[in-house]
Design brief:
Chain lengths: 111, 118
């Protein structure tokens, strides 16, 4: 079957670093996405990993290990506005646009 | 990135009625995708809308319930037919990013249409 697993909730302190893990099992694989979704809003694109390794974009970094079916999103220097749901998603096949989403990790940043 | 406009942004509907959601993209795209996000849940792909052909539906979704139109390369509609409270969701239109003539792999979402069925 096809499955994306990520923790349901996480809490962290402003200014700290948090790592959100994601494991996936898909019939095919063409990339791993991370999206940020604030309550009541549409998801916004954060990162897309196709190859193994770490990709850094400012305060956010995303890591992928294809052999382990594992990814993580790393958020540094947390700010209150980072409180949101973070969605891990993968292409389950070569069909463009057909993303399989995890349930999302709700991150609460506390002062 | 693509700019995607959806309307209505939200609506309250009566059971048994139908509502059509419109999605407009600021550039020509081959495929447009319709997702659903039920309360407290993640996103699920409903169907892929291709210009000039019938939409391709995912398991659990049928054309009679969710008819889709794709009249040109920048526009699509999704109709939620004969609505019931279980159809209360956010419906999201999305497209893949394009750079030159190549797809970038990034999927961009519209702001969503939040439907509440009473």
């Amino acid at each position: 079957g096809q499955n994306i697993d990520q923790p349901t909730e996480m809490t962290a302190t402003e200014g700290a670093i948090v790592q959100i893990n994601c494991t996936y099992q898909t019939s095919g694989f063409n990339g791993l996405f991370w999206y940020q979704q604030h309550a009541g809003e549409a998801p916004t694109f954060l990162s897309y990993n196709v190859l193994d390794g770490l990709e850094e974009k400012g305060r956010f970094s995303s890591f992928l290990s294809r052999s382990k079916g594992y990814s993580y999103l790393l958020l540094k220097e947390l700010q209150m506005k980072d409180s949101a749901s973070y969605l891990c998603a993968a292409y389950g096949s070569s069909n463009t646009g057909k993303l399989i989403f995890g349930q999302g990790t709700t991150l609460q940043v506390k002062p | 990135s693509a700019v995607i406009s959806q309307k209505p942004s939200r609506d309250i509907c009566q059971r048994g009625t139908s509502l059509t959601i419109q999605c407009q993209v600021d550039s020509q795209v081959t495929m447009m995708f319709w997702y659903r996000q039920q309360p407290g849940q993640s996103l699920t792909l409903i169907a892929t809308a291709n210009q000039g052909s019938e939409a391709t539906y995912e398991s659990g979704f049928v054309i009679d319930k969710f008819p889709i139109s794709r009249p040109n390369l920048t526009f699509s509609t999704l109709t939620v037919s004969n609505m019931s409270p279980e159809d209360s969701s956010i419906y999201l239109c999305s497209v893949e990013g394009v750079q030159g003539h190549a797809n970038t792999g990034e999927l961009f979402f519209g702001e969503g249409s939040r439907l509440t069925v009473l």
